[in-house]
Amino acid sequence: MTAQGTPRRHLLAAGLTVPLAAGAGLAAAGPAAADARRAAPAAADSGHRFRNPDLPFSDRVEDLLGRLTPEEKVSLLHQHQPAIPRLGIRAFRTGTEALHGVAWLGKATVFPQAVGLASTWNPELVTRIGTAVGDEARGFQHERPPGWGLNLWAPVVNLLRDPRWGRNEEGYSEDPCLTGAIATAYGTGLTGDHPRYLKTAPTLKHYIANNTEKDRTTSDSMLPPRALHEYYEAAFEPAVAAGAVTGVMSAYNLVNGRPATVDPALNDTVRGWTEKDLFHVTDADGPNNLTNSQDYYRTLPEATAAALKAGIDSFTNDSDDPSKTVKALTTALDKGLIGESDLDTAVRHLLGIRMRLGEFDPDGGPYGKIGRSVIDSPAHRELAREAATEAVVLLKNGGGALPLDARRVTKAAVVGPLADTLYTDWYSGTLPYRVTPRQGIAKRLGAAGEVTGGEAVDRIALKNPDSGRYLTAGSGDDGAVLTESGDSAGPTEQFDVFGWGQGIVTLRSAANDRYVGYDGTAFRNDQEQPTGWFVQQQFALEEQDDGTRLVRYAGYETLSDGFGPKTYLKAAADGALSLTTEDDATRYTAETVRDGTAEAVEAARDADAAIVVVGSMPFINGREDHDRTSLALAAPQAELVKAVHRANPRTIVVLQTSYPDTVTWEQRHIPALLWTTHAGQETGNALAAVLFGDRNPAGRLTQTWYRSEDDLPDLLDYDIIDSDRTYLYFRGEPLYPFGHGLSYTTFRYGRPRLSARTLASGGTVTVSVHVTNTGGRDGDEVVQLYTRQRTSRNKQPRRQLRGFRRIHLKAGRGATVRFTLRAEDLAHWDVTRERPVVETSTHDILVGASAEDIRARTRLRVRGEKIPPRDLSGTTRAAAFDAYSGVRLADESKAGGQAVGAEQDRAWIAFRDVDLGGGAAKLTARVAREGRGSGTLTVRLGSPRGPVAATAEVPSTGDRYTYDTVTARLRGARGRRDVYLVFSDALRLSTFSLR
């Protein structure tokens, strides 16, 4: 979510100034206040060891911790930590957004969206970007605007397992190796290069398995052990282990039945990845969800106590009002739900971060003097341009359509709804300037070239045939409240209609180029772009049988109370507009003032090249709190592409989106396709550089592009292994595979050479491959190393990325690329013994330009171990199954543990290749049954319908967390068999044994 919290966030998005709570300490009035703040530490400096930079951080933290009262410790556990004047401690705030640049603090350098940063496949570049963002965060430190702080909430490492996720733009990749590498690079830049101090304190979001927005606080991500350890955790661990981040943010969702806010893995797993102290925070209002939407705890004191014990150090709750959190923690302390030692643990973590940030050093530490001049500096502008250029992916280049020759292209048609604008997203900073696609192309062509075309959207006027009046907006930046008042279709009556798919449009007033939005009471043309938490600039123009249109307000929720089915515009006799039902709505005729497609076709018809810029609107086509429901390019945009292509076969399509689209028609018919994400202020210059060959494209896709939504399982299915999800397991033919991206030159790969043909456990092998640029242009190639395990007890990925290197090669030149492969890299999770295992097997070593474009291969023999037959004679966790049907993983208790919960009759879990020896005699199981009556747990052999070996009756225990032990005699359970535990109906199984 966000650093601000819900209510204040909405007002900030609307451009309103909101005063901070007393004591928040995030802004100061005038030089005197600033001087007082600077003087505060000195006033309390005398004899305080925590102020002494010559002492170890641990000593300084313990000194400061020992000076705090219990009340002060509690006060520090909210996002807005108050000042402690008696110790000269200033206020501190967690959570500055910095996903692809510093956000919400004013103009700052805006880099490509996170998925675009990853599409560079260039960790060195991403480290430099992180360095720039960290510098700019520090650049705001002297004025401390509202929302500022040095605890940055970035990067997002939730894996892009499904392109329908509304927040796809925030993540890096569907692959944990690539995600971990890019996150580590960005975090390394943010934290700085000092061996002890931090430039900023970045926080990974959102732990864990959090990439569905539908019912996101109550949806339950089911993660069987292999999916959890091999996939989801693998994206978080690298940056933590490398010291590139200082903690994680807990997610909104539940994981295996337990809210992520109280996931014991925050302590038990995440803190085990590093020896450094970590500082964990909750997502905005996550603690409140525990008692509200999740209904997991009865009271907030119970909930906050549980979160604290699970590993949370800072509560992001109730925006900048800490009173509820302070009261809840104080009550928990008074009732003995937590002890002062629990407070000390969390406060120790947060003080450690603040100490490393240099806050308690007399001079502010090594990064304390970074000033505002770094923000939007010339160097950062150049870096933004480099990043936007490297992020461009050439999807298709038929017949050498690209690059364009500027000497021959004297007239270029640049058309499309994204040709003349740059959109920002929810976590974007404020653009300091904009270079649109048209501007970039016009600049590249110079005075000798001509750029024609437009946005290719219709301009209409909406007239009420009954009254003869038109919908009328205002002029000037502030626009006016829309009324039905115009007598003719002048500029204030004209609106440009941008289609974003599935019938949703935005209306931009021709009078002032501002979008029409709704504030809960009136419609006004005053918005620079569709924006805001509720995105109130969305409409639908619904055609009726008589040819008229109803204007439906299609925005998300409003700031006022809901209005049920009243979503259609109605004009009163005086022209005032209100919302009403469909049957009562005013009918309008849509008079076309300008046919956007016709103008685009006319511009394209005699152009040397037609460039169509289409794509998404980040606040509409999927975003936080709203998943995508279609992968298709918006219908009006798809029709525009077809129309332009008919007029000029030399059509190039630029896709500017935050995610993959199913552009199957475009792939078949359009000569050249480029993709970029919303790439920030330098987008136009970057696109022009690639289109005209000044830069050879080398961006690569970081997730699979599918041909159809039918290729995807249910959005809420998180078990990528069972559902054959992502390039790791997908068995269909993708539109564009993971790692795909073309170049203007060609590359030849030599045969991979291994430093050893056999790899033993604990060992390493070097994979070397010579790559030669065989074309006529200099260019970058992204060399990708994959492996495939040929034999295994368990289902293995079709191939898996193990390393990558972006290299630059001059035409005709070559270089040898080397990868180090460790035996432990080839491990997977062994459910039979609940630990990683490296199996003895042959691995294919695959080197190529994408997951499907393998250019060379060899074999590596790995000497590991053989997974023995399962032994179920000891206590076995039911969650360590091999396969399942009709069950969900559930919380064994609220504090910890996993159980298996049946959801239907004949649900089952399987344990394969079990050695039952000469005969197991007894089933013993720990079960819970909340409902009345009794059920059964049946042991079957060979299949879910195989011979019955035992049936145990499961009586009601009255509660899902109350377990009882049941037993049954086993018959015929001998030898090596697959064992199935079959449930009669809803019950939970924690552990069992067959002995």
From TrEMBL:
Family recorded in the similarity comment: Belongs to the glycosyl hydrolase 3 family.
PROSITE patterns in the cross-refs: CBM6, TAT
Signal peptide: 1-24
Domain CBM6: 874-995
Organism field: Streptomyces boncukensis
Role noted for this protein: Catalyzes the hydrolysis of a non-reducing terminal alpha-L-arabinopyranosidic linkage in ginsenoside Rb2 (alpha-L-arabinopyranosyl-(1->6)-alpha-D-glucopyranosyl) to release alpha-D-glucopyranosyl (Rd). It is not able to hydrolyze alpha-L-arabinofuranosyl-(1->6)-alpha-D-glucopyranosyl (Rc).
Protein name: Exo-alpha-(1->6)-L-arabinopyranosidase
GO BP annotations, alphabetical order: arabinan catabolic process; xylan catabolic process
UniProt cross-references to CDD domains, sorted A to Z: beta-trefoil_FSCN_BglX-like (cd23343), CBM6_xylanase-like (cd04084)
Pfam name, any one: Glyco_hydro_3
InterPro entries listed in its UniProt record: Actin-crosslinking, BXL, CBM6, Cellulose-bd_IV, Fn3-like, Galactose-bd-like_sf, GH, Glyco_hydro_3_C
Example GO molecular function: alpha-L-arabinofuranosidase activity
Keywords: Hydrolase, Signal
Matches recorded under Gene3D superfamilies: 2.60.120.380, Galactose-binding domain-like (2.60.120.260), Glycoside hydrolase family 3 C-terminal domain (3.40.50.1700), Glycoside hydrolase, family 3, N-terminal domain (3.20.20.300), Immunoglobulins (2.60.40.10)
Domain of life: Bacteria
